């Protein structure tokens, strides 16, 4: 699986998505989410989005992540947002999305 905005690795049920762009483009994220949804038909159930490089996340991108979350939940999966920069974490808390997504710090294999 390839994406212009992310490095993606799957290890069994865990898919690690390392976002490599400082500002996430909505259309590129839409394409990425479309690809990730296809992995739900296999064994993927845990999606770890590494966000340490992301400085700005448009509200449309948050909406895409929420739609993806709904699909993941249908398969008893979960989404972890790892190593968010403070401004992104603040936005997530402000929108109360920290109640939906798991926010974590550390390495992807420990989340």
TrEMBL record:
The Gene Ontology terms for molecular function here are: anti-sigma factor antagonist activity
Q: Which residues form the STAS domain?
A: 23-111
* Alphabetized InterPro entries for the sequence: STAS_dom (IPR002645), STAS_dom_sf (IPR036513)
Where does the signal peptide begin and end? Answer: none
List where the protein spans the membrane.
none
Pfam families cross-referenced by the UniProt entry = STAS
Quote the CDD domains the UniProt record gives. STAS_anti-anti-sigma_factors
Source superkingdom: Bacteria
The entry's protein name is Anti-anti-sigma factor
**Organism of derivation:** Algisphaera agarilytica
């Amino acid at each position: 699986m390839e994406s212009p905005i992310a490095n993606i690795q799957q290890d069994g049920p865990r898919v690690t998505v390392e976002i490599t762009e400082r500002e996430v483009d909505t259309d590129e994220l839409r394409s990425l989410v479309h690809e990730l949804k296809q992995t739900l038909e296999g064994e993927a159930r845990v999606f770890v989005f590494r966000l340490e490089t992301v400085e700005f996340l448009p509200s449309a991108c948050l909406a895409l992540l929420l739609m993806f979350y709904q699909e993941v939940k249908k398969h008893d999966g979960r989404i972890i947002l790892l190593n968010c920069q403070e401004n992104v974490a603040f936005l997530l808390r402000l929108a109360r999305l920290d109640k939906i997504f798991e926010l974590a710090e550390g390495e992807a294999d420990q989340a």
